[in-house]
Design a protein that fits this description.
The complex is a heterodimer of chains A (44) and B (442). In chain A, 9% of the residues lie in helices and 27% in strands. Chain A has a two-stranded antiparallel ribbon with strand order 1-2. The longest helix of chain A is centred in the C-terminal third of the chain and has 4 residues. In chain B, helix 9 packs across helix 13 and helix 12 crosses helix 21. The longest helix of chain B is centred in the middle third of the chain and has 31 residues. The mean pLDDT of chain B is 94. Classes of the chains: A mainly beta (44), B alpha/beta (442). At the A-B interface, strand 1, strand 2 and helix 1 of A face helix 3, helix 8, strand 7, helix 17 and helix 21 of B. Strand 2 of chain A pairs antiparallel with strand 7 of chain B.
């Protein structure tokens, strides 16, 4: 499985001989949230 | 954010804090007449400041709808919820039950919305507590899996990742919502809740029948699993449990492993088939409807839990080789079935091993099996009650009696355990855990 993000960096790990991708989190990424949530604005 | 039970309070508060200053407003929607209104208002989501409203109004007015109401409520209100979401909006789920429900009923999702999942690997109170700890301790938070089920505008992946990061997830793995719900509903019926309950009951009776006193029988069965065995898996993996034993202990572990793997795998395969076919989902919806007439039954009424609750707290458990063999064999049978069905290792390891030892077993350790099972969702509570007796019966009738015979062990079964790829996968995933305890006990 793989995925692409335009905002967050992904990291490759190998589990049982198969490749997977993860995204590490953290509070330093919170400033990127508005960019990643582009288009989410309206609420009732 | 729709709903205020386990995940709702945690996710609403974490998102509001992470998005402070962004201009994105978190609003909580509740059904009319909800008993949760005072708690929601107390958490600062008020009608007066425009962050609390009636659920269908909030759904209709939002670009991102996080649906965190109970499984039964999702199923019962499916048509109205779907109709309320506006075109182009995104529906977020925190586990795959709704996809299971749609699959089992032949309904279809709307094609003009994004559908994503972010599934925290811990209960709601842990999602909140570790987020708060994350202000001081770098990396504290609950790991999440994420999934994109339907992406109509190319933004669904970033929405899902942003949601996970805003919840405080230190490490986010990818899955699909189909894999997620199968793994989740299967897993809680298996080693996470149902199987471990059945195993504990059968082992306690076995030890009592073989002359151990009540305190010792409890320490060597349930307490050994939730204490020494869980701790050893957490630090040294599944192989580490076996390797910690002396030669005599290793022989007994192997004998128990070989006796239990087959009977456990048989029931687990049946559970997977029931979940995959939709039977188990229909069963849950039916059982939830019967609850008004037959409330959730008691499950911690046997001698062992009374003994456990009154056990002196200074008595520590050890790794009982027999109990360890039974427990690890059942866990491995679950791992092997999920792998056979194509689930990614990150999901298998997190949901069948790490969730058990870090997240759920501590609840049983703290009090009893009911405290663990009944802190989970209604879907899980019903499933544990339905399947635990099957494991108890299989262990009592088929597996444990084999320990007394001189029948040859199936060496190949044990060799597959020693050679399994899961040990490496577990080792990587253990290192990706947050640096603080996950279970919130009170």
């Amino acid at each position: 499985m793989t995925f692409n993000s335009t905002v967050f960096e992904k990291e490759r790990i190998v589990l049982g001989g198969t490749e997977e991708w993860i995204v590490r989190g953290g509070r330093h990424l919170f400033p990127l949230l508005p960019k990643a949530f582009a288009g989410i604005g309206r609420s009732a | 954010m729709i709903g205020w039970s386990s995940q709702g309070p945690a996710q609403a508060q974490n998102l509001r804090e992470s998005l402070a200053g962004s201009g994105i407003r978190v609003k909580v929607g509740l059904r009319a007449g909800s008993h949760s209104v005072p708690n929601v208002e107390k958490a600062g989501f008020t009608e007066a400041n425009g962050t609390r409203g009636e659920m269908y109004e909030v759904i209709a007015g939002s670009d991102l709808v996080l649906l965190l109401i109970s499984d039964a409520a999702q199923a019962d209100n499916y048509d109205r919820i779907m109709a309320a979401i506006r075109p182009g909006a995104t529906l977020g789920l925190s586990h795959g039950f709704l996809v299971a429900y749609v699959n089992s009923t032949g309904k279809a999702f709307r094609s003009d919305i994004n559908i994503i999942g972010v599934c925290p690997k811990g209960m709601g109170p842990s999602v909140r507590r570790l987020y708060e700890q994350g202000r001081e301790i770098n990396g504290a938070g609950i790991n999440c899996s994420f999934a994109v089920y339907q992406d109509i505008d190319g933004k669904a992946t970033d929405y899902a990742l942003a949601w996970a990061i805003a919840l405080g997830s230190p490490c986010t793995f990818e899955t699909t919502l189909e894999h997620e719900y199968k793994s989740d509903i299967f897993g809680e019926r298996g080693i996470l809740l149902g199987a471990v309950h059945g195993i504990c009951e059968s082992l306690y009776r076995w030890f009592r029948g073989h002359g151990r006193q009540p305190d010792d029988a409890f320490l060597d069965s349930a307490k050994s699993i939730t204490g020494a065995i869980s701790k050893q898996i957490s630090t040294a993996g599944l192989l580490g449990v076996y390797q910690a034993l002396d030669e005599r202990g290793r022989q007994l572990f192997k004998k128990a492993y070989c006796a239990c793997y087959g009977p456990a795998a048989e029931i687990l395969t049946e559970i997977y088939d029931e979940v995959e076919s939709g039977n188990e989902i229909r069963s849950v919806v039916g059982a939830a409807h019967r609850l008004s007439r037959f409330p959730m039954s008691e499950i911690a009424g046997t001698e062992m839990w009374q003994v456990g609750r009154s056990l002196r707290s200074n008595r520590q458990s050890e790794i009982d080789p027999l109990t360890a063999g039974v427990y690890v064999a059942t866990m491995m049978a679950q791992v092997d079935i999920l792998r056979e069905k194509g689930h990614p290792y990150s999901e298998i390891v997190n949901e069948s091993i790490i969730e058990a030892i870090d997240s759920l077993n501590p609840y049983m350790d703290f009090k009893d099996v009911a405290y663990m099972v009944d802190n989970c969702s209604t879907t899980a509570r019903l499933g544990a009650r339905k399947w635990a007796p099957r494991f108890d019966y299989a262990m009592t009738q088929s597996a444990l009696p084999m320990l007394e015979g001189s029948r040859d062990q199936d060496e190949a079964v044990f060799q597959r355990f020693l050679d399994s790829e899961v040990h490496q996968a577990l080792s990587v995933c253990l290192d990706l855990r947050p640096p603080v305890a996950i279970a919130v006990l009170s």
